[in-house]
From TrEMBL:
<dbReference type="GO" id="GO:0016491">
    <property type="term" value="F:oxidoreductase activity"/>
</dbReference>
<feature type="domain" description="NADP-dependent oxidoreductase">
    <location>
        <begin position="3"/>
        <end position="127"/>
    </location>
</feature>
<dbReference type="Pfam" id="PF00248">
    <property type="entry name" value="Aldo_ket_red"/>
</dbReference>
<dbReference type="InterPro" id="IPR036812">
    <property type="entry name" value="NAD(P)_OxRdtase_dom_sf"/>
</dbReference>
<protein>
    <submittedName>
        <fullName>Aldo-keto reductase IolS</fullName>
    </submittedName>
</protein>
<dbReference type="InterPro" id="IPR023210">
    <property type="entry name" value="NADP_OxRdtase_dom"/>
</dbReference>
<keyword id="KW-0560">Oxidoreductase</keyword>
<dbReference type="GO" id="GO:0005737">
    <property type="term" value="C:cytoplasm"/>
</dbReference>
<dbReference type="InterPro" id="IPR050791">
    <property type="entry name" value="Aldo-Keto_reductase"/>
</dbReference>
């Protein structure tokens, strides 16, 4: 039997279940790596998504409960807060969101997705 060396789960300012269910604390205590996927909230925490029209017609996020109806507007309020805090520090919202994830423990290795070189550079600047 091999020991568990890493656990992957969604984790961001927007999705904090690993804190609430004890997974984050357990991985830290046991010396297990934690690999947060979607640390930028499926792109939402970047501040570049302001309406459903910002998604392509076939984008899966159009049908996600987080982006439907009143949820979209409530989640925009979180993004606005992230953007305001980032602006105070002279950084991009994505950098603040990613830096926050990185600050949660040395055992975290987030995997932000990107398709653009400029976004990759921006993410690296969060380090």
């Amino acid at each position: 039997m091999h020991p568990i060396t890493a656990v992957q789960s969604e984790y961001s300012l927007w999705s904090r279940e690993p804190e609430q269910n004890g997974v984050l604390a357990a991985t830290a205590e046991l010396g297990i790596g934690f690999v947060p996927y979607s640390p930028l909230g499926r792109g939402f925490l970047t501040g570049t998504i302001r309406s459903l029209d910002d998604f392509d017609a076939d984008d899966y996020r159009r049908t996600s409960p987080r982006f439907e109806g009143g949820n979209f507007q409530r989640n925009l309020a979180l993004v606005d807060t992230v953007q305001a805090l980032a602006a105070e520090r002279g950084i991009a919202a994505s950098q603040l969101a990613l830096a926050w994830v990185l600050s949660r423990g040395e055992h975290l290795v987030p995997i932000p997705g990107t398709t653009r070189r400029a976004r990759l550079d921006e993410n690296l600047d969060a380090l």
